[in-house]
Each structure stands twice: as C-alpha cells, then as structure tokens.
Specification:
Elements: H1 6-15, H2 20-28, H3 30-52, H4 58-103, H5 106-112, H6 120-146
Length: 147
C-alpha cells in the first residue's frame, strides 16, 4: 500500500516545516506515521555520523595532493632517461666486447686471450661469461634506477 502524501512527509521531516493539514493526515495514516519515524531515525543517524566524522582541514588535504602530484610527476620525468641510459650502457658494453674480441691485433690477442695452454673453447667460454656479466650488470643498473 502506498500513500500519495508519503513524499511530503519525508520532505517535512527533512526540513522541519510541517503543515497543519499534513500533521492531521499523519495522525490518521499508519503508513505515513511509519515513514515519518523511519525518516526521523535516518536523519538522526546521519547527524550522528556527521558529528563522528573528523576530517582534516581542506587546505592540508590540498597541500598533500599537490605535493603528491609533484612527486609523481618528478618520478615519471626521471624514469625514462635512466632506463635509456641503462639500455644504452648495456648495448655499448656488448658492442665494445665484440669489437675488442674481433679487432685486437694478433700479438695482443695472444698475450691476453690465448696464453700458452689455453684452448679456443676456454677462451670462448671466458668471452661469453664476460658478455653475460656485462649484460647482468647493465640489467642491475636498469633495475636500480627504477627505484
């Protein structure tokens, strides 16, 4: 069952302005009486929750938001250059390693890479390990710059 004056009862409870005809209707209509009790209870609960709510001043919230925005912008601005430097460092290291292995003069090559008793497989393994260590070091540099 629905009463056509139920909405008026809710509005009167909300703003506190009761017309005499609405008060007379409230005494005779059980549905509107329940609606008024429920609306008053909800209004009291809302007022209690509003009193319990302890928000910091708006200026403090605004300053924190602005500071956070600046910090985030600075982090975004500095992240990409560090990644580029790390990637270029890794690429440079690999290119330098390969250039050094293939373009050293034979006399220097024999002194550093192929001393007596060193086989080609061991030299290749040492060169590969050096390359892997360079790449791992460059990756560590990239990961460290992300922090």
């Amino acid at each position: 069952m629905k009463c056509e004056r139920e909405h008026q009862v809710i509005e009167a409870t909300r703003n506190g302005l009761w017309a005499s005809s609405l008060r007379a209707h409230l005494r005779g209509c059980a549905l509107c009486t329940q609606t008024e009790l429920l609306a008053a209870s909800l209004q009291e609960n809302a007022a209690e929750l509003e009193r319990q709510l302890d928000l910091p001043p708006a200026a403090m919230i605004w300053r924190r938001a602005q500071t956070r925005r600046r910090v985030d912008a600075l982090q975004r601005a500095t992240r990409r250059p560090f990644l580029i430097v790390g990637a270029l460092g890794a690429l440079y290291s690999v290119v330098f390693l390969l250039w050094g292995l293939f373009h050293l003069p034979q006399s220097v090559y024999r002194l550093f890479v192929a001393p007596p008793g060193l086989t080609g497989d061991v030299a290749f393994a040492a060169a590969a390990l050096s390359g892997i260590l360079i790449i791992v070091g460059s990756c560590a540099l990239v990961l460290e710059t992300r922090r």
